[in-house]
Design goal:
nine-stranded antiparallel beta sheet; about 240 residues
């Protein structure tokens, strides 16, 4: 065998393994069930996605042990973390899925019969179980599954690579004919009006400019009247000279 990595794996792991009570993986912080007792947060719930999307073959369980397995290698260290889990019954007797509201209920006293406790840590997600209030007699012994989101990661399972991010046709924007000046802002909750000093100064400058233009127009009309009077005086002088 030429592949050294496969050769190291074929030799099997070391006899001695390390055991941990806490592990950070996939953006989650996992605890064993014993380590979570007495703490405000419970991080021992795990969930493994099944092959179908309906959730009928998903597995839910609780972490009992966390093991670090190391393989004998001559190059870089090769380690893998596995969870020893106590799985709940995935059948209808222990797991109920509400397809309308996407709620999963677990019967806490029902266990998976087959012996298959180990799962690679990178293949699980984190969940926690919330019991129903005592008034729900029909839900006694059942807990609702709440899936947590990993920290620092964004899960996007329904991304369509062919989906366009912008339409080819863009609607035309109507032209702005007239813009009313903003005199101030009003707080509808407290009934307080706040005037912007910069806006007021701009409006006053515009009013002053308009006033100056009106004065110039008035002076032009006055000059026009004076020119007409001068023409009349010149005509009278011409008549007298004749």
């Amino acid at each position: 065998m030429k592949n050294q990595h496969l050769r190291d794996l074929s030799l099997g792991p070391l006899i001695e393994v390390k055991q941990w009570h806490t592990l950070y993986v996939n953006g989650y912080k996992f605890h064993t069930d014993a380590w979570s007792q007495g703490k405000k947060t419970i991080n021992s719930g795990v969930y493994v996605k099944g092959l179908t999307d309906g959730g009928e073959d998903d597995f839910y369980g609780i972490i009992k042990h966390i093991y670090e397995i190391e393989y004998n290698t001559s190059s870089t260290p090769k380690k893998v973390f596995v969870f020893y889990c106590d799985w709940f019954d995935p059948s209808r007797r222990g797991t109920k899925v509400d397809f309308k509201y996407h709620v999963v209920d677990i019967r806490m006293d029902k266990r998976y019969v087959s012996y298959d406790p180990f799962i690679i840590a990178h293949n699980v997600r984190q969940v926690y179980y919330v019991s129903y209030p005592p008034s729900r007699i029909d839900k006694r012994g059942w807990c609702a599954v709440i899936k947590t989101k990993p920290r620092g990661r964004i899960e996007a399972t329904d991304v369509d690579d062919d989906m366009p991010y912008q339409e080819d046709q863009v609607s035309h924007i109507n032209k702005i004919i007239e813009v009313e000046p903003i005199l101030g802002f009003q707080d509808s909750e407290n009934g307080v009006e706040v005037e912007d000093e910069a806006i007021k100064e701009d409006i006053e400058e515009e009013e002053i400019q308009d006033f100056d233009l009106e004065e110039e127009d008035d002076e032009g009309e006055f000059d026009g009247h004076e020119s007409e009077e001068d023409n009349e005086e010149m005509e009278l002088d011409d008549d007298s000279s004749e």
